[in-house]
Structure formats: structure tokens, C-alpha cells
Amino acid sequence: MAGTGDSQRPLSRLAGAESGPGSLWSRLQRNPWLLLLLAALLLGAGLGLRVPSNVDEERFLGVALEMLQTGNWLVPHRAGEIYGDKPPLFMWLVGSLVRLGVKPTLALFLPAFFAGIVGTACLYDIARRLWNRRVGLIAGLLFLATYQTHAVLRDGGIDGLLFLWISLALYGLLRHLLLGPAWRWYYLACAAMGLGIISKGVGFLPALLLIPYAFAVRRGWSGVVRMPGQAGRWWLGLLVTLAAIAVWLAPMLIWASLDGGADGRAYLNDILLQQTAKRYANAWQHQEPFWYFFVKVIPQYWLPLLLTLPWMVPAWRRELGKHKGRFLVLLGWVALVLLFFTLSSGKRKLYIFPALPGLVLAIAPLMPWLLRRWFAGRPRARKIFVGVAVVWFVAWFARGFIEPLRDGGNDRQQLMAEVARESQGAELVLTNWREGHWLYAQQPIVHFGLDTPSQAEKAAMWLRQHPQAVAMVRADDIDRCFRRELAKPVEGHHEEDWFLVREDADNGQCHDDSQYSIHEFAWKKPLS
């Protein structure tokens, strides 16, 4: 097999493309910033047309807007109830963008868009430094071609922001471990990991690079930088990480100890233990078998990279046989990230996205060799490959505009507008609600907690004491506490059938003497 030195040959020659001054590849070589423009076009296609379309997006936008309305940026709330599932950094960023005048439904998607641009730049530059400029361009293009890139970075969730910190930390650590010593980049990586942890707990993942790096150093592999006698500098990185975490954690601990009371202690337990270590060890949501990522996720979401594996796996084996430390560090990290998430019973498709940059960097330097092997003596195959690649990128660009038009508006937004009309803006009791019902509420709402049981019973009790209010109850729950003939169905096409009931629809059969919380909330400026 030809080694990574073959990447020094022009990719245009290896792929059979024209290398004249007007070719796209020549322009990319002369102006690599065009790669970032391509990233902006692909990841930004349709930006601003989408509305929050899933419970995660509705939740994070709602929490950010509630922070703005209440002025409480330290403790996130969801419809007046403390929200302890995730640290607040992402919601801070979205709320800050809205305060600066950005439309809320645009502000939600900007962090992931920006992370995609930064991540592409990091991949290009580190691949350029590790190998050469052509490999850097290949790395950027492979990343932008991958299905999961668009699935995550067009989303309005925390994982987009997490990817920003993962990209910066991975870049800084690789500069230090493979091209260093570069202690400033190491400390930047440590700070990025700290910010990643207060975005979503797994922000420490780039630190797993140190495991294959330590093995390579100990065994004397080539391509890694040895830094003996620097224990103090290494440990200083941990302090930098803790300092970044303290940006949020320190004021949170002060609040919990001085003013938080029982709610503060419950919040700290939830955010520091329940939603991190306990959720990882014994997940109560998204439970999947150990083979889930390898059978259900990677075959689809890592296309088209997956198509190169029949050739890449033997090539990697040969590179590792030559004790090439760069491949060991990159592939070892990808394997450790996959192992980390595989060991948890809770799995989601987007969890393994942080491993993608490592895989891209392990593939990119070998792509020139692979292209030459594929296309040697087959000029027609070269033309087909170029045509398919162009169509693939154009399709991703077009999809950014097609998806918002195909999906239309948010069902819960339409539902809550209809509810406001039918109830004439009366106080609304929410039962068995989801985040979109609160986010798009057009009137004052009352609820008993998102996951509290027997909510229809509690709504009946509330209506007896507040006859001016209206309750929104699912069709499946209506007969338990209310007379269906006096309930008014909410018209429209929604994911569930809902009824509006007043106090006169009470069938008198429901009583609830249990202790439960009551939360009241109203948007000062409802989201339309």
C-alpha cells in the first residue's frame, strides 16, 4: 500500500479532474476560505425558515425565553418549574442572541451553525498541519459530506454547541500531542472541555485522546510528541478545566447554599448526579441494546464515509503496523468514544457525533491513495464520482429549503392558537403537556409539573376552585373526570386529540388528596 506520502500528489490528478485555473479544486487550493463558504451554504441553507419542531428544540427555546422574561439566568425554569436536566450555557447563548435582537426561532439554530463553521475550519487546519493543505481540504469536504453533520448541525439542540467545544478541544489537544509542545493550545483545549461540560456533561470526551497518546509515547511510536518532566503543566490543564466549569458552578453552589433551600438542593442533585452519572449508569430514557450504534446509527448517519471502510480498515492496519502514532491516537479516540456511549444503556443517534471528526482525520490522508486505486485506468468512473459528489452536496443544500416547506408549521403552535380562540384567553390548566404547549401558550397557564401523575384529576380539583378557568385534557383522559358531551373538542389536525373543559363538565368522580406543586406562568409577549 502507498503510504500517506501519496497525499502530496494533487488530488485533481488522482481523481482525474481538470486542474486548470478555472477548476473548483484549484480555487479551493488557492483560497481555502471557500471551504468555509461552502460550509456556510450547506449548513445555513434554509436558516430562519424552520421553527422548533421537536420537544428538545421547544424546551431549550422556552427555557431561554423564560430566562429573559424573569431575569433569572442562574437557575433555568420551564413554565415556572425548575429545569434541571441540562446546564444552562446553551440557553444563555440563545437568550443573549434574542436580547441582541435576533428572532427567537433563528437564535435557536445559530449556535449549531456557527459550530459547524468553526468545526470545519479546525478540521482543515489541523489536517493541513499534520499532513498538507490538500488533506486539509479533503477533511473539510468529508465532514461536510457526512449525513450526521447535517442531522446535528441543522438542529436547534445542545449538541451543536457541544460540538463547538469538542472541535476546539480536539484541535488544541492534537496541536499539542502531535505537533507540540504547544501548551497554550493545550490550555485552550482544557478550557473548551470545561465549557463543554457546562453545555452538556460529556464535554470531557476529547480528554480520552490522552489514553492512546500515552500508549504511543510509552511504546515509542512515531508521530507523537514526548514531553517528559512536565507533570506540573499537565495538571494545570485540569485547573483550567475546573475554572471554566466554575463560571456556572460557583455561583450555583453559592445560591444553593444561601438561598436555594430544598429546591436548590434538589436541583443540584438532579443536575450534578441524576442527569449525569446516574443517567449514564442506569438510563431511564432512550434505552437501546449495546449494538445500537453499530447496527442502527453508523450504517446510515456516517454515510458516505462508511463506503470507504473496506479499503480503509486494511490500510489503517498497515499504518498501525508501522507504529504510526497519529493514526493510533485518532482511531483510538474514535474507538473510546464509541465504547463510552455503547456501555451506557441510554443511547441516541446524535451521541456519537463527537467521534466523527476523529474518523474524518483518520480517513482524509489516505483518500488520495484510495481515489487513485479506484480510478486507475477508469476515466468514466472518475467522472461518475465527481458527478455524484456534486449532486450529493447540491441535495444537502436543497434539503435545507425543502424540509421547512414540507414540514410546515409546528402542530403545537397551531393547537395553542386554536385553544386561545376557543377559550377566549381564559386561564388554561395544562394536563399531560409537552414543551410546545407552554412555549406557544397565548394565555396564562397553570400546571402541576411535567411528569406528575393523575393530572386530569388535579385539573378537576383546580376547576372546582377556579370556575373561570379552562382545562385542556387529552381524549384518553376525558371520561375519567369529565362528561364528554360537555367537553369541547379542539378543531384542527394535531398529534393528539384534545378537549377543553370547564367546571360544569365535572362528573364528580375525581378526587386527589396527594401533595403536589402548582405552577402558574404567563408569557408577557407570547411567541407567535
TrEMBL record:
Key words, A-Z: Cell membrane, Glycosyltransferase, Membrane, Transferase, Transmembrane, Transmembrane helix
Molecular-function GO terms, alphabetical: pentosyltransferase activity
Span list, region Disordered: 1-21
Protein's cellular compartments: Cell membrane
Domain of life: Bacteria
Biased composition (Polar residues): 1-10
A Gene Ontology term for the protein's cellular component: plasma membrane
Cross-referenced InterPro entries: LipidA_mod_glycosyltrf_83, RgtA/B/C-like
Any Gene Ontology biological process: response to iron(III) ion
Matches recorded under Pfam families: PMT_2
Domain Glycosyltransferase RgtA/B/C/D-like: 85-248
Membrane topology listed for this record: Multi-pass membrane protein
Membrane-spanning parts: 33-51, 106-127, 133-153, 160-179, 185-213, 234-258, 325-344, 350-371, 383-402
Keyword field contains Cell membrane: yes
PANTHER family recorded: MANNOSYLTRANSFERASE YKCB-RELATED, UNDECAPRENYL PHOSPHATE-ALPHA-4-AMINO-4-DEOXY-L-ARABINOSE ARABINOSYL TRANSFERASE
Name under which the protein is recorded: Glycosyltransferase family protein
UniProt source species: Pseudomonas knackmussii (strain DSM 6978 / CCUG 54928 / LMG 23759 / B13)
